[in-house]
């Protein structure tokens, strides 16, 4: 069942690891009096309280990476190959992260062989089809592929600030539609995911090529029309790799989930759990913000989408 039609709030879909990592590197080191590192947990909590206050969501759900290689690593050995191991203070916080997510009460979805972005894209598709309004929250621009229809994407910037995108905002920034972003990324490359792209083709030229030829498939079938010759030569040299790079960039929206896609409200029981954990983690400055949340716009317990 979808949420009731008179409800206007979004469903938060949280890219949990992305948000924790961003918070960890954005904030100075923090720890409890006993020396337990907490900066990433604090930053994530601060962001979530801000979203609860400003977005008045009906509830939320969480997508996370599975703790093993994904199908993308099987397709391309270089995919994210040089990413460093998480520093020790972050690793300690990763161990405590499940406790924080459990306190907030949002269901967590993980799909072996897929990334958290794929899980969120699948949840967004299903929730949108049921009449909900998903709001994906991530630090990863790949999530922008999901913008459109009732789905928006909030990309977190420095601290807890960020920008919310619908389809028009994606087009305004990249000059391609959300559905065309994998083609754009295959051409322009992505250092974060270690997708090389085509040397000499930056973002603007990639946008122009995608608009003119309709994506990688159309471009490869009409290479003889590409100008100038230097660009045509570069594309020809990398023609065999372009479909692979597009496939790596493409988010999957049909990920098999072990549990029925659902979201849960942030209710009084959740607030009680979070308050207890905040006190344990010594997040004293967050407790008043938590207590100030008005819960009358959230769903009552038990009315989450099924």
Give a written overview of the molecule:
This protein has 13 helices and six strands. With 306 residues, it is an alpha/beta fold. It folds into two domains: 11-173 and 252-291, Rossmann fold (3-Layer(aba) Sandwich), CATH 3.40.50; 175-249, 5' to 3' exonuclease, C-terminal subdomain (DNA polymerase, domain 1, Orthogonal Bundle). The protein has a six-stranded mixed β-sheet. It is elongated.
Summary keywords:
306 residues; Rossmann fold; DNA polymerase, domain 1; 2 domains; six-stranded mixed beta sheet; 13 helices; elongated; disordered N terminus; disordered C terminus
How many angstroms separate the termini?
A: 6 Å
Number of helical segments? 13
What is the string of SSEs from the N terminus onward? Answer: EHHEHHEHEEEHHHHHHHH
Which regions are unreliable across 5 or more consecutive residues at pLDDT < 50? Answer: 1-6, 299-306
What's the count of strands? Answer: 6
Share of helix among residues? 40-55%
Output mean pLDDT. 88
> What's the level 1 CATH class of the largest domain?
Alpha Beta
The helix/strand class is: alpha/beta
Furnish the topology, listing elements before pairings.
Elements: E1 11-15, H1 16-26, H2 39-55, E2 59-64, H3 71-75, H4 88-104, E3 108-110, H5 116-129, E4 134-138, E5 152-156, E6 162-165, H6 167-174, H7 181-188, H8 203-213, H9 216-221, H10 229-237, H11 242-249, H12 268-281, H13 287-291
